[in-house]
Amino acid sequence: MTIVTDLTSRKADTAAPLIDPLADRWSPRAFDPAAVVETETLRTILEAARWAPSANNSQPWRFIVARRGTAAFTKLHDAMAGFNQAWADSAAVLIANLAETVDAEGRERPWARYDLGQAVAHLTVQAQHEGLHTHQMGGFDAKAIHDAFDLADSLEVVSITTIGALGDVDRLPEVLREREVAPRQRKTLDEFVTVGE
């Protein structure tokens, strides 16, 4: 097994050419605790999410954006599983990703989570383009976040995104450090693509 020591570039070994923000994207846990995401950069990242496609143009995504050092950041961090708390406190920004699963008339929005996923993907690629890194998380207490921010019942907390600049991998606990430097792996296209005739 090859251990990666230079984490500044972990470009994917793709089977077909991809644009740089996709090929360069990976999910670090070592973030620079002093780095700041400028307001205009953050606005650009969120603008990318704004222009994601959605069913019937419903745009059912909502985001709670919290900068490191704010009360909102602390609320999100406190709701994370301990495994994620161990590293996410160094991120510059935490974003809780919410899906509006019921519209204003009380009708179910069956594609809301899918649409939110597309918006988060757009946000992620734009952040990479801006020279930042993201890491998506599912280990958190959704009810704690719901209660901490007094969210409407129609909103479901689906995931949390960390955003920041790369930090020192040696600051991570050993088990996380091992995962950080492990080789990137993906299934081949043949393993998950079926071509219908």
TrEMBL record:
Keyword Transmembrane: no
Entry superkingdom: Bacteria
Native organism: Agromyces lapidis
Keyword Membrane in record: no
Stored SUPFAM superfamilies: FMN-dependent nitroreductase-like
Pfam name, any one: Nitroreductase
Keywords: Oxidoreductase
Name assigned to this protein: Nitroreductase family protein
The Nitroreductase domain, residue ranges: 23-82
Family, per entry: Belongs to the nitroreductase family.
